[in-house]
Amino acid sequence: MENMIYILFICICIPLIVCTPLVQKSSRDIMIYLIIGIMAALFVSEINGILLKFFDRDMLFVTTTITPITEEIVKALPVLYYVFLFSKSRKKLLSISFALGIGFALFENTFILIQNVENVSLGWAVIRGFSTALMHGICTAAIGYGLSYISIRRKLSVPGTFALLITAIIYHGIFNMLVQSMDLKYCGFFLPMATYIPFLVYLLIKRKKEKLNTEGA
């Protein structure tokens, strides 16, 4: 169906939008940014579709060179908006930026599933969930987490933001190149988990120390 991507968008977004006012205030921003991530995925799909035609449908070139740039820029803009207008809290920025990336991946994965429903398997779903989806969350979370440090330092705000964006684009591009490689695709599949797990351990240790310090005080 020609309008399947919009039908899918409506089916996913409307229940989330209706649910958002009922969510506790502390979690509402995360829900909103999950929805924004889905919207970003729809917007980027239109841009990437145009670019794919422009580059003669060279999928390998576009996905390794162009889409990491378009997708990371579009995902970063709502995070920048949140930083400069609402909050510079590290915990908040990490949460909303990761939610945005996961929302983006949720919509992308679901649409790819519908397009290739006859060729997918449980293995495909697991790989997409722990690799591509996680990669999107990591890239956006890295920008949000980094912004919490540099946004309070005026001299670093512009070059620092640019550096974070370039880092996310390079990480995304490397992932896309690896997963499309015949010899190194499994390295690509494991790259997001190899990034996520050490950072998760670091955060858990940090939170435990903060809790102990609070209780000690």
Helices and strands in order:
Elements: H1 4-19, H2 25-54, H3 59-85, H4 90-115, H5 122-150, H6 154-179, H7 185-216
Helix pairs in contact: 1-2, 2-3, 2-4, 3-4, 3-5, 3-6, 4-5, 5-6, 5-7, 6-7
Determine the N-to-C terminus distance: 61 Å
Average pLDDT number: 90
Would you report the number of β strands? 0
Radius of gyration equals: 18 Å
Strand proportion: under 5%
Tally of individual helices: 7
Overall 3D geometry?
A: globular
> Class by helix and strand content?
mainly alpha
SSE arrangement, N to C: HHHHHHH
Query: How can the largest sheet be summarized?
Result: none
Helix residue percentage = over 70%
Q: Which runs of at least 5 residues are low in confidence (pLDDT < 50)?
A: none
Task: Explain what you see.
This protein is mainly alpha-helical. Helices cover 86% and strands 0% of the residues. The protein is built from 7 helices and no strands. Helix 2 (25-54) packs antiparallel against helix 3 (59-85), helix 3 runs antiparallel to helix 4 and helix 3 packs across helix 5 (122-150). The longest helix has 32 residues, at 185-216. It is globular.
Give short descriptive properties of this protein:
0% strand, mainly alpha, 217 residues, 7 helices, globular
